[in-house]
Amino acid sequence: GQNIDQPTEMTATEGAIVQINCTYQTSGFNGLFWYQQHAGEAPTFLSYNVLDGLEEKGRFSSFLSRSKGYSYLLLKELQMKDSASYLCAVRDNAGNMLTFGGGTRLMVKP
Amino acid sequence: GAVVSQHPSWVICKSGTSVKIECRSLDFQATTMFWYRQFPKQSLMLMATSNEGSKATYEQGVEKDKFLINHASLTLSTLTVTSAHPEDSSFYICSARGGRYEKLFFGSGTQLSVL
Q1: How far apart are the first and last CA of chain B?
Q2: A30-60 per-position pLDDT tens digit
Q3: CB contact under 8 A, A103 and B42
Q4: Which pLDDT value is given to residue A1?
Q5: Low pLDDT (below 50) residues in chain B
């Protein structure tokens, strides 16, 4: 099975940097995804990591350590529109299933 | 990029009626689609995996007779909530795998309110 943990809520200031952590214990691993979800909307894809290291994409970066079962999503130069839930999801070995963490609700304040 | 269309976006119905939600992959073929349910301020919970041309695979605790899934073609899966009750009120989202990394593309979701 899969067990994925991430903080429930975080608050940060506009213009700042925030790191959202995700830890997982899984019976298999074939990639980790981060999604952003605004209230009442469907999730949108942010990043994908399957090898260890940092993937950078504009203001967003994602890091993975497979040996530690750990990932983080780093958001720089925070904007008010970044207020959303951020979902960490792990894909199993067969590549068929995505298991989502509980999501982290990020609130960006002026 | 790949697009998944979900319809309707929202629906209000009376208790005891049935509601059908459609999920279409617009520019790619999806042999597998997934149906999720989401309660307010909670994460996505997988309900079932929809396989084209075969029976859906339901997650534990999901009533297959209540949530009917049909995946008749490579671009269309439907979820029918039968005899809906107020506790079925929720946000339902479909998704399909495709594109780079075989990531999930999500439909826009359907907000179901059962009165």
Answers
A1: 37
A2: 899 999 999 888 899 899 999 999 999 899 9
A3: yes
A4: 61
A5: none
Which residue do the tokens 């809520």 mark?
A: A9
Chain A residues near residue B41 by CB distance under 8 angstroms: 105
Interface test with A, best of B6, B37, B43 (most A CBs within 10 A): B43
- Tokens 């720089």 -> residue: A76
Helix count and strand count (H, E) for chain A: 0, 11
Nearest by CB to residue A100, choosing from B6, B43, B105, is: B43
What are the tens digits of pLDDT across the range A65-84? 999 999 999 999 999 999 99
Q: Which of A41, A91, A68, A54 is nearest to B111 (CA)?
A: A41
For chain A, state the CA radius of gyration. Answer: 13
Name the residue of chain A whose CA is nearest to B42's CA: A102
Q: Report the distance separating Cα B48 and Cα A7, nearest Å.
A: 26
Q: Look-up: residue for tokens 């780093």? A: A74
| H or E, element range at B20 | strand B19-25
What the block records as the tokens of A4 is: 């994925």
N residues, chain A: 110
> In sequence order, which ranges of chain A are alpha helices (DSSP H)?
none
Nearest-CA distance B64 → chain A (Å) = 19
Structure tokens that stand for B109 in this block? 């979701």
